[in-house]
Amino acid sequence: MEKQRYTKMVLLERVIDEMLKQGKSHKEIEIHLGLQGDRPVHNFLKQRRRKEKRVTAGIPMRPKGRPPKGYVKPEVEKDYEIKRLKMENELLRDFLQVTGRK
């Protein structure tokens, strides 16, 4: 059984686009570039169209993989910071009332 090869298709994107403009078929491109697998050019183009469609619809791209330990989303961090500042203001206000300044 032959070992499966992985090819970073993004690096071949320009070459694939040029060959498509020349009128070559997906199979001809696969043979020329030595790509193996089940329709790699077709799947790459399909994936690229899907990404473009999401971008035009305004859907943000999500990062791949698992977030690092201790990672906090910026929105959650903002909410926490606002809550902490409100508590601090309340504490200072109470302190000023106890000392009789206001």
Q: Describe it for me?
A:
- With 102 residues, this protein is mainly alpha-helical.
- The protein has helices at residues 13-21, 26-33, 40-57, 74-99.
- The longest helix is centred in the C-terminal third of the chain and has 26 residues, at 74-99.
- The protein is rod-shaped, with a radius of gyration of 27 Å.
**N-to-C series of helices and strands:** HHHH
Count of helix runs: 4
Mean pLDDT: 88
Which descriptor suits the 3D outline? rod-shaped
- What's the story with the biggest beta sheet? none
Which features would summarize this protein structure in a list?
rod-shaped, mainly alpha, 102 residues, 4 helices
Secondary-structure blueprint of this entry?
Blueprint: H1 13-21, H2 26-33, H3 40-57, H4 74-99
